[in-house]
Amino acid sequence: MKETAKNQVTAPDSARGLGRTILALAIPALGALIAEPLFLLADMAIIGHLGINELAGAGLGTTVLQTAVGLMVFLAYSTTPAVARAIGAGNMGRAMAAGRDGIWLAVGLGIILALGGYFGAGALAGAMGATGEVREFAVDYIQYSTFGIPAMLLVLAATGVLRGMQDTKTPLYVAGIGFAANIALNFILVYPLGMSVAGAALGTSIAQWGMAAVYLWMLVPRIRAAGQSLAPHPRGVLSTGQVGSWLMLRTLSLRLALLATVWVATGQGALTLAAHQLVFTIFTFMAFALDALAIAAQALIGKELGAGNAGQVNRLTRTMSRWGVYFGLATGALLAIIAPFVGALFTTDESVRSATMVGVWILAASQPICGLVFVLDGVLIGAGDARYLAVAGMLNLLAYLPMLFIVTLFEHSGVSAVSWIWVAFGLGFMLARAATLSWRVRNDKWMLLGA
């Protein structure tokens, strides 16, 4: 079922109109991106008053959960461009079919992960070094969280569908209501009902299922209205999974880079690790803002490629690349100003503060590079260029690991260690990513026009 060309929405031609279109997608996307970490922060805030063992156990459990769900983010990244491309081509039926198949894939993977997590909770907690009460609480958190994993993945896929439809406001509203419900459920289950760590995990799972139900309530009628069956199409699920596997490999390369960085920081001593974690926390927060631009790029690029507008795709790519660099300059300037004071928000240790300050200054210098990287990553995801992203990710990792190895060859401590680690990651690794992404978009070969 195809829509006529007059019903297609294209990016405006004027610079001001294009800017408004980008912001209309990016700003709500930023709010929705922040919501998921807030779910975990709410768990930690409520559990923190129970005791040290409970907090430590829940911390290990959230690490397992974040790792598993983080690798599945491709469910959003693969459905967004598929839906956007079909809509750009005027084929709403194909768009809804792509969304339906992505949701079914999410549910299937969610069930597999849930079963594996539930029955493997003890082994996972033990592998992370947990013993005694900490291990028991970690197992409780993992097992009660597995109930919500299928819903979490369904939410990822459904969010991707709506982004592909150029709608980032609805995921913001759903995430906001879900976050409020999560806090209330967790408090009731942990304290009045006395479920401890298990109650916090169960409350989050229930909130995730509530969000999933809202998305299904919204999307099922649209799928039917587009003349599509609710049953999955094997070829569509396989296609989504194929793209997703490359995107998972891309995500895995990023995760390995982060883990290797933490491993090197740990080897440089407790002071270095503490300061590195503080700088990385700030990097993660800034990444949300940059990723909002990437999400706008995914949706807009996919739609314009589907519509066959190569000129508009080039214009969007240039515009959003500039935006990424400019935004990086702005956030970098802000970080440079607050660097001497930010450590005081987290610690009273003067040595950690000093090391954090220098690390944040290096992070500030890397922000324009990060802005370009995030935008171009979103552009190529929107173009469905998943295989290149996966291969480039592994090449970037291979380029980065020797940089880290060089850092380990010298004895560092405090300011020196944090400085060289963040020179390697914030400048070296990000420059490698910027080079491979910029090389890809140097011409039009990456563009595949049409549905």
From TrEMBL:
Subcellular location: Cell membrane
Organism of derivation: Paeniglutamicibacter gangotriensis Lz1y
Keyword Transmembrane: yes
GO CC list: plasma membrane
Any GO MF annotation of the entry: xenobiotic transmembrane transporter activity
Membrane-topology descriptor: Multi-pass membrane protein
Segments passing through the bilayer: 21-49, 55-77, 102-121, 141-160, 172-191, 197-220, 256-276, 282-302, 323-346, 358-376, 388-407, 419-439
Keyword Transmembrane assigned: yes
Signal sequence coordinates: none
Family designation: Belongs to the multi antimicrobial extrusion (MATE) (TC 2.A.66.1) family.
Keywords, alphabetical: Cell membrane, Membrane, Transmembrane, Transmembrane helix, Transport
InterPro entries, per database record: DinF-like, MATE_fam, MdtK-like
Protein name, entry field: MATE efflux family protein
